[in-house]
Amino acid sequence: MPPEAAGRPSRSRIARTARLAVLPASFAGRTAVGLGRRIGGRPAEAVAAQVQQRTAQQLFATLGELKGGAMKVGQAMSAMEAALPEALAGPYREALVQLQEAAPPMPAALVHQQLAAALGGDWRTRFREFGDRPVAAASVGQVHRAVWDDGTAAGTPVAVKVQYPGAGDALVADLGVLQTVVPLMRAAAPGMDARALVAELRARVVEEVDYPHEAAAQTAFADAYAGDPDIAVPEVLAVEPGVLVTRWVGGTPLSRVIAEGGTADRDRAGLLLLRLFASAPVRAGKLHGDPHPGNFRLLDDGRLAVLDFGATEDLPAGWPTRLGPLLAAGRDGDAATMHHLAGAAGLLQPGAVSPGALAALLDPYLEPLRTPSYRFTRGWMQEQTRRASDPLGAASRTQRRMSIPPRHLLLQRVAVGLVGVLCSLGATVAVDAEVRRWLPGYR
């Protein structure tokens, strides 16, 4: 996101607000047209599906063009792609990728200004070296490579995350504007409590721009996995509002493993990704909330390094108690028990989904639990997307009648993202054994 002057809205922010503001009116127009067609004799469900597709298409397209909080909401709602044909979901994904890759770097002088504000006017004395050219960029800040002055002759290689000026204020402002598109979000995903969703996202975004909060989460993970043979978490060396300094981590980016890695590395990375996400609530009392390939490295010693902790969820009691039994019932084909547990967890609208319909929807996703090892493939993911994308198909109808409580939003995002990365890796993973190891009640 380009830096904005503190306390003064930029033209780009005003334009974002204007584009968001017109969405509800266009939705009302489409609804009226749909009503006219229904009166004209078209089946009500077909008209509703068409309105839903067009509404979701415009919502995704608009969010995909925006930055700040709007882009964060677009990413959070990306699980809704499964309710859209690929022709609609594809351009939305491309828009988000372009936004992430096109974030212009801060000028070096502005970076220095931010460092001085956070670390003091003598900030350069804290480093032996500091690279002005960023090595990575994101929606709220950018990363620089440096050498921390730790009193030793060589110093410590570090990653310095510097937040864009005004990034937090811009994100919160965008999320406030997004309250106006709650009706549109409900139309795109009828089973979703859109107002509660926006409130939950607002809390998450505020945490993500809070570097001291991120540092505390990263430290909790670093303590939990200290000396671990499989997971490496870099130590936090310093943190101030707007600046976070951690040990530098090398290794092979997971994106490169996906693009050109051998079978052994792919399988190793897949296993350790699953192990991290399955074990973290038990070991660290937290869930890592962003399984994006850019957040991981495969180290030469075979460990998986985890780099970003801006999105985490506190689970001090570990996994939800119903999750293990629910997955076990689905694995074993016990549709009645799975339906009961899903309803008790608030995942079903009362009376809207039968046990058989729920089992038919979830059955393919439970396949990895029914074999000693499972190979994730892009073809499998594409087939599930195709199955759920047919707006008149049974899977899509069941999906629209389900309800995802806001408190489970991050868990859903993590599950979808993790499976997507495993499919991109083409990894073969012993899912059942790993889940059995970490989830209470999964027997």
Written overview of the protein:
A hairpin with a 7-residue loop joins strand 3 (141-148) and strand 4 (156-163). Strands 1, 2, 3, 4, 6 and 7 form a six-stranded antiparallel β-sheet that branches. A four-stranded mixed β-sheet has the order 5-11-10-8. The protein has 19 helices and 14 strands. It is α+β, with helices and mostly antiparallel strands. Helix 4 crosses helix 7 (167-177) and helix 16 packs across helix 18. The chain has four domains: 11-102 and 168-207, no CATH class; 108-166 and 209-232, Phosphorylase Kinase, domain 1, CATH 3.30.200; 236-314, Transferase(Phosphotransferase) domain 1 (Transferase(Phosphotransferase), domain 1); 323-438, no CATH class. It has helices at 11-21, 23-39, 44-65, 68-76, 86-102, 108-119, 167-177, 182-188, 194-208, 211-224, 254-260, 263-283, 323-331, 335-344, 355-362, 378-389, 394-400, 409-425, 431-438, and strands at 127-130, 136-137, 141-148, 156-163, 231-232, 236-240, 243-247, 252-253, 286-288, 296-298, 304-306, 312-314, 374-375, 428-429.
